[in-house]
Structure to design on (101 residues):
């Protein structure tokens, strides 16, 4: 991880502008929602069964990995999140395949 890694601007903005009525907070929150929508579209296109739930879960996982990477100052949280994400995606695909039988 780069020494100057600072994480996600949207996360930082929402923390620093915790008031949900703050314009900065609202822009950052919209960014997070757009990220979830983008993930959902990718998951739908790839044929995942629970695209909505997976998109929200993967975004939560990424946010947690970013914050933990800042605290630990290494990339291990991203590596761990990648493994968890792979397991979640595999379970969804397996469930979709068995539901289609």
């Amino acid at each position: 991880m780069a020494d100057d890694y600072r994480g996600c601007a949207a996360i930082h903005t929402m923390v620093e502008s915790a008031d949900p009525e703050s314009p900065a907070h609202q822009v950052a929150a919209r960014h997070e929602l757009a990220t979830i929508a983008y993930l959902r579209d990718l998951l739908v296109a790839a044929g995942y069964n629970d695209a909505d739930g997976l998109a929200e879960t993967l975004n939560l996982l990424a946010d947690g990995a970013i914050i933990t990477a800042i605290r630990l100052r290494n990339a291990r949280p991203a590596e761990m999140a990648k493994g968890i994400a792979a397991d979640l995606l595999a379970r969804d695909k397996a469930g979709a395949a068995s539901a289609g039988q």
Q: What stands out?
A: The mean pLDDT is 92. The CA atoms of residues 1 and 74 lie 5 Å apart. The longest helix spans residues 76-99.
